[in-house]
Amino acid sequence: MISVVLNGEARELGDPATVADAVAAAEAPERGVAVAVDGEVVSRGAWGRTSLSDGQSVEVLQAVQGG
């Protein structure tokens, strides 16, 4: 297991873990999602191949419509 900070909360993920695993753990919808790891945006195409390490901070952001 690895420990990351996911949207401000400590979370345990399997080892190895990828950004895609973090998105799944955040229960994010399939569309309208952006992810940043340690403040760096990770493109959707790289989620499955971007590994996470202990202590990293992952923000999963959902687009919201409104005005």
Task: Please provide a written account of the structure.
The chain is mainly beta and 67 residues long. The protein has a single domain, classed as Beta-grasp domain (Ubiquitin-like (UB roll), Roll), CATH 3.10.20. It is built from one helix and seven strands. A five-stranded mixed beta sheet has the order 2-1-7-4-5, covered by helices on one side. A two-stranded antiparallel ribbon has the order 3-6. The termini are far apart. The mean pLDDT is 94.
Summarize the topology.
Layout: E1 2-6, E2 9-13, E3 17-18, H1 19-25, E4 33-37, E5 40-42, E6 51-52, E7 57-62
Parallel strand pairs: 1-7
Antiparallel strand pairs: 1-2, 3-6, 4-5, 4-7
Q: What CATH architecture would you give?
A: Roll
**How many structural domains does the protein architecture include?**
1
Please provide the ordered H/E string of secondary-structure elements. Answer: EEEHEEEE
CATH homology superfamily name: Beta-grasp domain
CATH class: Alpha Beta
Structural class: mainly beta
Strands, count: 7
Q: What is the 3D form?
A: globular
Individual helix count = 1
Overall radius of gyration: 11 Å
Please tell me the overall pLDDT: 94
| Fraction in beta strands | 35-45%
Q: Please estimate the helix content.
A: 10-25%
Strand line-up of the largest beta sheet: 2-1-7-4-5
Q: What name does the CATH topology carry?
A: Ubiquitin-like (UB roll)
Main sheet summary: 5 strands, mixed
